[in-house]
Design goal:
Blueprint (H helix, E strand, L loop, with lengths): L1 E2 L6 E9 L3 H13 L5 E4 L4 E3 L4 H5 L9 E3 L8 E4 L3 E5 L4 E4 L4 E9 L4 E2 L7 H4 L5 E2 L7 H10 L3 E7 L9 H15 L6 E7 L11 H10 L3 E4 L1 E7 L4 E8 L2 E8 L2 E3 L4 E2 L2 H4 L25 E3 L12 H19 L6 E2 L4 E8 L2 E7 L21 H18 L11 E2 L4
Parallel strand pairs: 2-3, 2-9, 3-6, 9-20, 11-18, 12-13, 12-18, 13-14
Antiparallel strand pairs: 1-2, 4-5, 7-8, 8-9, 10-19, 15-16, 16-17, 21-24, 22-23
This protein binds flavin-adenine dinucleotide.
The site of flavin-adenine dinucleotide (FAD) has 37 residues, from helix 1, helix 2, helix 8 and strand 22.
């Protein structure tokens, strides 16, 4: 719909969704399944849609990169309008978003899901050397195949793997790259000639203690040198040297490490467009209620996915659960009712500890274990072949054919009894 009451032409929609990634498309599909007549617009600048959870498998030589990429157009739900622009600003006081071309789009309700910012430039020298000189990252579609190339070509020497401060999307992904690489080197007799170091800016291998013993077994098996409080701050690819700020108590020092290959998980933060807006909390994230996903100050705004302030594991699995909840609560809002669907913080992280086995971490707020399957089928705290099968064969079609199409397999929302 379009209006020109103030002399400035602008579109108006029942619901505007910012970001057509995992969370945005799933929310649009869930909304339109519930209310096909709803006037929904999705603002998304990219032509391609990526299954990012597949990039770990690309870096491990299990998937090819092309299998993780689709046309965005094929996932814009029928009945939704696609505005192929970026949002340059939020104006929640006037119920509008401002596009990068200067136009304004108005809404009755907004769903904000623009994802997380990968801040490559926060590491000095990284943008210049990324993708060459043995410097790689599974956090980019075009670089995950380079990870696998480097792993195959590695004949020994020093391999570094890094993890920045949390929150990051898929906090297990830096370790997944580490384990799959070591597994390949072990199978090919290379690991004995390798010095492998994991540099983690935090102080824990994994935030939920139940999964740590199984992961530590693999750290020992692969002979990985674990370095906590060690944050990558600078890199010179040509000189094959990385610098880490190492924190021990109150003391910080800069330590240089030579490398033959390095896998980098970049520093991450809220997108600038959110951080600089009235939607942001003090840390820059979309300031929503962690149960209803409704904004704390603007009740017609909902936030989900990686950009939201909810303290869950930032994963596509979380977005799968959040999207139907956001859809339900947006419809409640439009009908003048209180939000009635609630999110328990579910997120999941399938830790690929070796080719063919996964430690399947599934948990919600406060680190509460929330397993999908009974323990006799998949005990998430132990390496599991069935969990690998799930990751390799089942989760990708669940993403493309269910989650993004509004078929809420494993994601039916919990509705409060009062409503
Ligand atoms: C290497 C790696 C491994 C992972 N492994 C797993 C895993 O095993 N399991 C799991 O569940 N999750 C995993 N994830 C995390 C998962 O991919 C993300 O948590 C998920 O994609 C978040 O969904 P989102 O919609 O919030 O963000 P995204 O899917 O990133 O989508 C954000 C969208 O917003 C758009 N956008 C950005 N800025 C703007 C703007 N200004 N205006 C309009 N649109 C904008 C972007 O173009 C993008 O399409 C992994 C991620 C990576 C990188």
């Amino acid at each position: 719909m379009s209006s020109a009451s103030s002399g400035v032409s602008r579109e108006i929609h029942d619901v505007v969704i910012v970001g057509g990634g995992a969370a945005g498309i799933a929310a649009a599909a869930s909304l339109l399944r519930r209310r096909p007549s709803l006037d929904v617009a999705i603002v998304e600048p990219q032509s391609k849609h990526y299954y990012q959870p597949g990039w770990t498998m690309v870096g491990g030589g299990v998937f090819n990169a092309a299998s993780t990429e689709r046309e965005e157009a094929d996932f814009i739900p029928g009945g939704a309008r696609w505005i192929k622009e970026a949002v340059a600003g939020f104006a929640p006081e006037s119920d509008e978003v401002i596009l990068s071309n200067g136009e304004r789009v108005a809404y009755r309700a907004l769903i904000a899901a623009p994802g997380i910012k990968l801040d490559w430039a926060a590491v000095e020298g990284l943008p210049e050397t990324l993708g060459k000189n043995g410097v790689t990252s599974n956090y980019r579609f075009d670089l995950a195949p380079y990870t696998w190339r480097l792993v195959q070509e590695f004949r020994g020497g020093r391999a570094l793997f890094t993890q920045p401060p949390l929150p990051i999307k898929c906090a297990g992904a830096p370790q997944k790259a580490l384990y799959l690489s070591c597994d390949h080197w072990l199978r090919n007799g290379v690991l004995a000639n390798a010095k492998v170091e994991f540099h983690n800016a935090g102080g824990l291998l994994f935030g939920v203690k139940e999964y740590v013993p199984a992961l530590m077994e693999y750290i020992k098996k692969y002979g990985v040198d674990l370095n906590f409080g060690s944050r990558l701050v600078k890199i010179d690819g040509a000189a094959k040297t990385a610098w880490f700020e190492v924190t021990k108590g109150d003391v910080k020092e800069i330590v240089a490490r030579g490398f033959d290959m390095i896998h980098i998980c970049p520093p991450q933060c809220a997108p600038d467009v959110v951080r600089s807006s009235a939607l942001a909390d003090a840390a820059g994230w979309i300031d929503v209620d962690q149960t209803t996903l409704q904004h704390k100050r603007f009740p017609n705004v909902f936030g989900l996915g990686d950009a939201a302030s909810t303290p869950n594991a930032k994963t596509a699995a979380a977005a799968r659960k959040q999207a139907p909840i956001a859809a339900e609560n947006v419809l409640c809002f439009l009908a003048g009712n209180a939000a009635h669907a609630s999110y328990d913080g579910y997120g999941s992280c399938p830790l690929t500890v070796e080719r063919g086995k996964i430690v399947f971490a599934e948990f919600g707020y406060g680190g509460k274990l929330l397993p999908t399957f009974p323990k006799w089928l998949i005990d998430g705290t132990k390496p599991s072949r069935l969990a690998w099968f799930l990751k390799e064969r089942i989760l990708p079609p669940i993403y493309w054919k269910a989650m993004l199409k509004g078929r809420e397999w494993l994601a039916r929302p919990t509705i409060s009894a009062k409503s």
